[in-house]
Amino acid sequence: MGELVGRQVSDLKELTTGQNLGCTEALRLQQIRGNSAVFEAATSHPTDRAAVLECPRGNLYVLTMTAPDRLTLESEGAQSAGAPAALTRRP
């Protein structure tokens, strides 16, 4: 608990310019409850470092293990636009 355990990278392209307006966040494990884990964005910066945008800090991500190799992002919490809906481990 309280450790940085990974990151979330949003790729969100603007249609007219093609610039990436996503945010990259370092995630800190906040809580584990049953088959769910809560992560908080400890740091946040534009995925494209040349982009001029403010990335919020403190977003919350709740991931639930829905299958042995699959984590699903729950709708509770505040997530960055473009965050993936699910993560699947590949062999």
What does this structure look like?
- The chain has 91 residues and is mainly beta.
- Helix content is 0%, strand content 47%.
- It has strands at residues 4-9, 23-33, 36-46, 60-67, 70-73, 86-88.
- The chain is globular and about 40 Å long.
Low-pLDDT stretches: none
How much of the sequence is in beta strands?
over 45%
Number of DSSP helical runs: 0
From N to C, what is the helix and strand string? EEEEEE
Helicity, in percent?
Answer: under 10%
Global Rg: 14 Å
Summed over residues and divided by their number, the pLDDT gives a mean of 83
**Class derived from helix and strand content:** mainly beta
Number of strands: 6
| Principal-axis shape | globular
Within the largest sheet, what's the order of strands? 1-2-3-4-5-6
The major β-sheet equals: 6 strands, antiparallel
N- to C-terminal separation?
Answer: 28 Å
How does the SSE layout of this entry go?
Blueprint: E1 4-9, E2 23-33, E3 36-46, E4 60-67, E5 70-73, E6 86-88
Antiparallel strand pairs: 1-2, 2-3, 3-4, 4-5, 5-6
Short description:
With 91 residues, the chain is mainly β. The protein has strands at residues 4-9, 23-33, 36-46, 60-67, 70-73, 86-88. Strands 1-2-3-4-5-6 form a 6-stranded antiparallel sheet, with no helix packed on it.
